[in-house]
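Our preliminary data section would be incomplete without showing what the modeling component actually yields. Below, a chain of 226 amino acids is followed by its predicted structure, encoded as tokens that our downstream tools consume directly.
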Amino acid sequence: MSLKSQFLLRTSLAAVLVPAMLFVSAGSVKFWQGWAFLAVFLVPVLVFMSYLYKHDPQLMKRRIQMKEKFSSQNLIQAAAPLLFAATFVLSGLDHRFGWSRTSLGSVPLWVTLLSECLVLSGVLLVFWVMRVNSFAARTIRVEAGQPVISSGPYRFVRHPMYLGAVVMCLAIPLGLGSWTAFPACALFVPIIVFRLLFEEKFLRRELPGYSEYCLRTRFRLVPRIW
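Predicted structure:
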């Protein structure tokens, strides 16, 4: 399948499946948190994917490829979309049946709005990473001529894309007004940590200059913490 065909297929699926999971499970389009989420997550993602397809098709090819060389990482590639789907569906069901409202109380408006802002921040951070690092593949690998990137967000942490993903994971359920869906998305955090440690070990071994970069940039995921 050509890059154009894969791009159109993936963007079309995202544009259809994410709203469907949210609003079908909610049983209504009167779900303002869902609309706000689409505005801060889905719309920017589709815009950025279109930008990359036009301006950096090689990166788009790397982002489309999902088959890993390592079986443990293939499991992560399979689990990640399932956890995201579970988060969207649980949030919609929570809106329909009021699980959070009856058990823990409604998510405060300020928490929802702050979480939506954090989702957008996570999306922007991931896009910044891809603008700086054209080798930011979806799979763990090293290509011929691949350099060590130390500019942009890589000045602060060694894995800024994973930081953006963690921010989004923790913010999405609350942005959708659901306490109930939070554990499903929070499960993604230890998965990211496991993948990060595996990837870092691989890069130290396979990417020349990466070990020296690690000495200069001390923190893996969270500045000043870890």
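The domain at 3-216 is CATH 1.20.120.1630 (Four Helix Bundle (Hemerythrin (Met), subunit A)). The longest helix spans residues 71-97. Preliminary results of this kind motivate Aim 1 of the renewal.
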